[in-house]
Amino acid sequence: MSALTSAIAAIDSLHTIPPLTADDEWRSIGASLPDHLTLERITEDMHERAGLVALLAFLKHTHSTSTRQQPEHAAASAQKLCEHVARIIAPCPDSEAGQVSDDDYPEYEQVAHRSRDLAPYGLAVLRILCNDYSINLDVDTLLTVISFTAPGLTDPWTTQGACHVARELLSQQLLHRLDQSDLLESILKEYLRPAFAKSRPQAVTASGRKAEFPQDDDPHRGLADDTKEVKPWKYEDHRAIAVFHWVVLTADSDVLKRLWPLFIPVLLALLDDGTTRIRRRGLLILDSFLEKFPSNILRDTGLASVFRDAVFPTLHFLPSITPEEDSILLLEAAYTALLRLARKTESKAGKVEPHGTSPKGKLLDKLLREGVFSSYFHVKEHVKIVAVLLMQTAKILDEMQIYAVKHLKDLIPMHSEVLSNPFAALAPATLSAAIQGLQAVIANCWPRLSIPAYQDELIKALVVCYMTVHDERDQLGERFAELDVELVKTASMLTVAAKGTAGKGAEDLADKAALLVSKEPLLAGLFQ
Predict the structure, then answer these.
(1) Statement: the pTM of the whole predicted model exceeds 0.90
(2) Assigned domain for 277 exists
């Protein structure tokens, strides 16, 4: 039995493994390991979690005592051990452990669970080895560390503790690299470009620029190309997306300006993928990318239309074809990215264009017509998705401002239908979104709200909603007060908007409100 095997057997006999912060307990375990255990022998005989635990205990013990003497070439063994530990904890199917065959790949969740189980111990080992032996990690090991640093724990293989250790370790390693932009360029060229080479969409050329004459996509191509040969980043190396996300978050505008062609194929491949988690991650990354990407390059290269065409299909990922929860995740991310794109497509400085013909104006109009209104027609019975659409509508209107008046004929009926629904109190989140959406309509389109037809429909919607909310006061519980305040605020905004037209609208609204209050005194609380 080898030294490490003996140590592993001792670890396996433990009922529980102590927390990583319990240094004294770890040193106690380390003290019980065989005296002849060395880094060289550990490197030769590594094994899964028990091996990582034994290694961690060994390192914590040797870190606090000088009884174990390491040979002069221990640093080389430590470097080799770092690479081996990184391979073990990486969120990749483990061919060495016999998990992968040509026709049988483990599920993504299975790989993520295994990596999540091993990562806390492996990352702790890497941190100790790097500190004790002043190791500069090789790029592949660094990629594994990066894959555990995603913000918001968006990857299922990382935890809060693992993320903290990985970020700390990464920060230390980056201090040893004189030019971080060189590392980013190396990752983009030598790691990400080969991984995504076969899954590049037809909309861009191999150099990442807009294709002037793109080939028509085969509708069946997506299924045929969804393989490990075409998408190794999806099936063979789950680090790739997390690493790309880190590159986008880390790169400054100068790096993006110089290396942008290397980003585009990866972004479009993610946006084109049919798996919800990947497409959504691509949308989140695109939003971060656009935030820093120079507007002039976006405009002059034609990439704005490429991104628009890549994201827009996601707006139609709706039930019943797409599960409701998946649809919500995708819609929120897609609208956020498209709104960011609209803000970045302002006309050139000094160039005055009518709103309807400007790139930003056309995109916002398209978002409402082909996005919100089209989707609402199909998903009225899915109240959670309706809430998302209403919240995004408010954001779009705030971007359009007065130019949103052209859409009043669709905006007012959509909001009125939700507010007037007798069962609206059953979905308070959707009701709240409709009220806030109507506030955005009033705030941006107030000059046209003196039109009697619009005014009557809005008053009716507010009155019906106010009565419903008060009738269902007990059912709404804590949400009642919030909804009541927002409804009163909306009615007040409508009154102010009517006064702002400097016409007969204000008097008409006051007369209508007084008549309603005379018939139902409860409405005095609405029209204060």
Answers:
(1) no
(2) no
Question: The tokens 């990749």 sit on which residue?
Answer: 92
| φ and ψ at residue 76, rounded to 5 degrees | -65, -40
State residue 137 phi and psi, 5-degree precision: -65, 145
Burial annotation 12-45 (CB, 10 A radius, 16+ → b, else e): eeeeebeebeeeeebbebbeebbeebbbbbbbee
Q: How far apart are CA 305 and CA 312, in angstroms?
A: 10
Percent of the chain whose predicted confidence (pLDDT) is above 70: 79
From residue 301, alpha-carbon distances to 207, 210, 255, 292, 296 in Å are 13, 7, 17, 16, 8
At residue 210, the 3 state secondary structure works out as strand
The answer to whether 380 and 405 have CB atoms below 8 angstroms apart is no
Sorted by sequence, the CB contacts under 8 Å of residue 59 that are 6+ apart come out as 30, 125, 128, 129, 132
- Residue 149 in domain: yes
Query: For the chain, how many structural domains are there in total?
Result: 2
Whole-angstrom Cα distance, residue 397 to residue 400?
5
Show the CA angle centred on residue 326, arms to residues 423 and 158, nearest 5°: 125
Tens digit of pLDDT for each residue in 287-346?
999 999 999 999 888 999 999 999 999 999 999 899 999 999 999 999 999 999 999 987
DSSP bridge partners of 204: 210
Q: pLDDT tens-digit profile of 249-299?
A: 999 999 999 999 999 999 999 999 999 999 999 999 999 999 999 999 998
Structural domain contains residue 212 = no
Judge whether 204 lies within some domain.
no
- Dihedral sign for Cα atoms in the order 141, 143, 147, 149: positive
pLDDT of residue 220: 47
Per residue in 399-436, pLDDT tens? 999 999 999 999 999 999 999 999 999 999 999 999 99
Which residue among 173, 193, 220 closes a domain?
Answer: 173
**Three-point CA angle 450, 452, 454, nearest 5°:** 80
User: In which domain, by residue range, is 79 found?
Assistant: 3-173
Q: Which of 131, 155, 173 is the last residue of a domain?
A: 173
